[in-house]
Amino acid sequence: MNDHDTIGPMMVQIGADARAAATLLATAKASAKQMALRVASDAVWDQRAAIIAANKLDLAFGADKGLSPAMMDRLMLDETRIQGMVDSLRAVAAQADPVGAVMDEWTRPNGLHIRRVRTPIGVIGVIYESRPNVTADAGALCLKSGNAVILRGGSESFHSSHAIHACLVAGLQAAGLPDKAIQLIPTRDRAAVTAMLQATDYIDVIVPRGGKGLVGLVQREARVPVFAHLEGVCHVYVDGAADLDKARAVLLNAKTRRTGICGAAEAVLVDRAFHDKYGDVLIRDLLDAGVEVRADDVLAITGTVAAKPDDYGREFLDMIIAARQVDGIDGAIAHIRQYGSHHTDAIITEDDAVADRFFRELDSAILMRNASTQFADGGEFGMGAEIGIATGKLHARGPVGAEQLTSFKYLVTGDGTVRG
Questions:
Q1: How confident is the model at residue 3 (pLDDT cuts 50, 70, 90)?
Q2: DSSP reduced 3-state for 200
């Protein structure tokens, strides 16, 4: 029997262990979950040298695989990024426990008292590429929300993810929680992904975190429900009533702070009125910052590249941006409806009425005014971390934190109450 032949039985065992752990976690004390996350955060920091050493193996693997600079950036860990993981673990630990929280309650005329309370979903499957910090974020959020989790990291982050996972398991053991509550698939074999997507007996929902290829595969082949976004085609619309300084600062940050994240701006839409007033200042800023600007005929200047039709609606994840002039808010809304991915879109304007239209008439999971799209992140939303940005319309939408990883049930109390 070769390694591939063992995937099926291995995944059945992992699924059964996760289901058993989920039963225990559903009633675990908030203090125990909090302790597990605090111990895990300390372990991550204490083991930072080992994690960085493991990450160097992954970086070498990624380089041999020919990963793009943006993907290599996603993969890389240093002390600063490890500190970010530690901070996220501690932030999630400090949050109020969502399990058992009363969402609503009321009393019926017949005397029945009804409460809707948060309850864990059960077992979450997370499939992700490159970013090893997802191991910590996903493990923490699933634990906080009382769910067991099965993690399948990308082949390129194999060593880093295992080093981080060991710290999470240490936290579970210290808190007396089942160490199978957070499991990491111990193989690079893609058959494990297929097995997860079909594991309806063990996994309640799949969360894919990665590029269009991965997410599309999951959405096509999963028999388990999916929380997903296909890609982050984020727009910045600079309105005629925009403040010039705000527009310049926000656009540069949205594009250049980190190009490889799903909240990076991939297109700038410039209102004709803004362009008439301020000329090419935004395009020059981008060029000066080293961004390749793929511009339409109106915004083209020396140094830009002529935009092709498929540059609009494209997730570059690189120092590249598409640029187009539009006629006011109507033109911006029409463009985003045609080319957007329902992830995150921003407007720069001082006009309240225009901003209100942008917020009301677009259906992206996240809409921003006078703020960088790079804030499309669960940590920046006060969630401590996030497991992904969901762009669907059922259950979870936007950053998926611990609260979004719960379902609910109704608790109904009577006093010998019978129905006539």
A1: low
A2: coil
